[in-house]
Design a protein that fits this description.
single chain; alpha/beta; TIM Barrel; 8-stranded parallel β-barrel; 16% strand; binds flavin mononucleotide
């Protein structure tokens, strides 16, 4: 039974952020009551090794849906091969004023300017401890909105040190359009300094904890070919373990005539699909399989996922597709995953 197609029309009568919260609460109730097991029977494994980690299948949850790690078990019960929580910042922060989340069903898209609303990394780590999840858990870290951009490295260092013992991998998010100047960290000297510092710290933490936790850099779709090439070279130089392509776009070309087109924020879903795929292709040409690519952006069905694999991705993540298609999307992609990603 595809229960999501039954409740979706009701959820879509609510404003987007309320619907989001209600859905996650329903999901948790379904998990706690044991209903999830009946609604979402276990998927057949499609194991893949990426960044040295064993994933039971290549379909993950993208960051931003479970910013505080409240719903890890409930989301895992849907069949994901990995779950990424966050973005989390060192200190709690409220994010931008509401409304800050908008649905554009005509485009299978979302605009959001949440602004890293989260309860801080200590709170998130308490939630991780409470969960029963044993699969691959990514923790996505960012900076507080009021930390000066010149001091951003310090926030990422706090995130890295604190998340290290609890995470399977850690994502460095420098691509959200909703924190002022954040995406500047993708540029020239700033990206080099950030990556060099975090790599050094990762190796220190490896010695301290006796385990290696991979680092992935999450980048924007609004980068030039030159930017992509420069970032790929940095990833290779500093042996960063993975790259997530992409975050949401600030480009409105595809939705120019939509009444919500002028809302500030990041656009996700179908309108970002081709831009994200182009970034995956650009990275793939530069990285030559030396560093794995995790693709996100506009994956709404198995064919969209297949396009990302064909472009060079080893894993995929979904967010907007989950809102429009429901958990059935995960099964569809896992079962349709014809490509066998490389480790
Ligand atoms: C409401 C919303 C909130 C998001 N929050 C985050 C976030 O906190 N950190 C992050 O790295 N990406 C965040 N993203 C971006 C997604 O993780 C993903 O990279 C992007 O939406 C493209 O995938 P999609 O088209 O499947 O949604 C968010 C996306 C949406 C729609």
């Amino acid at each position: 039974m595809n229960i999501y197609s039954l409740i979706r029309p009701l959820l879509f009568t609510l404003d987007a952020e309320t619907a989001h919260t209600v859905t996650l609460k329903l999901l948790k109730a379904a998990y706690v009551s044991g209903l999830s097991k009946r609604l979402y029977p276990t998927l057949k494994d499609k194991p893949v090794k990426v960044m040295g980690l064993d994933f039971k299948n290549p379909v993950g949850l993208a960051a931003g849906l479970d910013k505080n790690g409240y719903y890890i078990d409930a989301l895992a019960a849907l069949g994901f091969g990995f779950i990424e929580i966050g973005t989390v910042t060192p200190r709690p922060q409220a994010g931008n004023p509401k409304p800050r989340l908008f649905r554009l069903p005509e485009h299978q898209a979302i605009i959001n300017r949440m602004g890293f609303n989260n309860l801080g990394i200590d709170h998130l780590l308490t939630q991780v401890k409470k969960s029963n999840y044993k699969g691959i858990l990514g923790i996505n870290i960012g900076k507080n909105f009021d930390t000066l951009i010149e001091k951003a490295v310090d926030d990422y260092l706090i995130g890295l040190r604190k998340a290290y013992p609890a995470a399977s991998y850690i994502t460095i998010n420098i691509s959200s359009p909703n924190t002022q100047n954040l995406r500047q960290l993708q540029q020239g000297d700033e990206s080099r300094k950030l990556i060099a510092t975090l790599k050094e710290e990762q190796l220190k933490l490896q010695r301290e904890h006796g385990k290696y936790v991979p680092l992935a850099l999450k980048i924007a779709p609004d980068l030039t070919g030159e930017d992509i090439s420069r970032i790929a070279k940095l990833l290779l130089e500093f042996e960063i373990d993975g790259v997530i392509a992409t975050n949401t776009t600030i480009d409105r070309t595809d939705i120019a005539n939509h009444p919500l087109a002028k809302e500030a924020g990041g656009l996700s879903g179908n309108p970002v699909k081709d831009k994200s795929t182009a970034v995956v292709k650009g990275l793939s040409a530069e990285l030559q399989g030396k560093i794995p690519i995790i693709a996100a952006g506009g994956i709404l069905n198995a064919d969209d996922a297949q396009e990302k694999f064909a472009a060079g991705a080893s894993l995929v993540q979904v967010y907007t597709g989950l809102i429009y298609r429901g958990p059935e999307l995960i099964r569809e992609i896992v079962e349709g995953a014809r490509h066998k990603p490389q480790g």
